Amino acid sequence: GTVVSVPPSEKKWKVGDRVGGPWHGGHDHNCRACGRGLFQMCSNKAINGVTRNGGYGQYATLRTEAAVRVPKDAEPADVAPLLCAGVTVFNGIRNMGIMAGDIVAVQGLGGLGHLAIQYARKMGYRTVALSRGTEKKDFAMKLGANDYIDIKANDVGEELQKLGGAACIVVTAPNPDVISPLLNGLGPQGKLLVHTAIGPVPVNTVPMVLNALSVCGWPSGHAQDSEDAIAFAQTHGVKCMIEKFPLEKAQEAMEHMLAGKPRFRAVLTMD
């Protein structure tokens, strides 16, 4: 949206600037995480839509340190999903310390997954899509995947090892049963990056110890991370598939989302 009002003390933003309100809604600047620049991990973080209101309205208040600058030539509806799903997978992958040319596998082809495939491929990784059945293979390849593995018909660990072993496997679908088998597909010092809060899962520690594997997560990103995710998407043509709903149909959009029907993000628009 467009900034319509700022307090007299505001120095960063002015009326007319285009901004976005991401998942991260603010931080205290004082805790250990903030001191390290990990603002989205702040001990007293604010979260837009959770601890702060305003997502389903024509106007909202944003904290200056958490507002995201949005290019004026960008389509707002296309940018909106990048402020949550986009920055989450973009920021997670780029913080794994993996080298260009390494294998990055993406489990799940939903909202997070279809963006993760695009980001990973454009970052220079050999990208492998993992999903159940063959129905999504063509879609995955169009997104930019180099390879596709049907995890229903194949042993996903064995298939990934045939390719050389993954440096990183990005878990985007909330299925706890896939975590342990996916570990078998990692190469030495490989990382299993979990982007879904799926609760306790059983993990075989033997391959973890023998091959220095790790299971980790990454929580979204702060304002600069979101701006980086948007800039990267604009430069490299990463685009989220969306379905638009006018604001007056917000309830319909919510029901559509809860039923798992959007491909892949429902976006409320305001004229």
From TrEMBL:
Citing just one GO molecular function, the answer is: alcohol dehydrogenase (NAD+) activity
Q: What is the name of this protein?
A: Enoyl reductase (ER) domain-containing protein
Residue ranges occupied by any Alcohol dehydrogenase-like N-terminal domain in the UniProt entry: 1-72
Residues in the signal sequence: none
Taxonomic source organism: Hortaea werneckii
Which keywords belong to this entry? Answer: Metal-binding, NAD, Oxidoreductase, Zinc
**Alcohol dehydrogenase-like C-terminal domain mapped to chain residues:** 111-233
Question: Record's Gene Ontology CC terms?
Answer: cytoplasm
Q: Which InterPro entries match?
A: ADH-like_C (IPR013149), ADH-like_N (IPR013154), GroES-like_sf (IPR011032), NAD(P)-bd_dom_sf (IPR036291)
Q: Do you know which Pfam families this protein is assigned to?
A: ADH_N, ADH_zinc_N
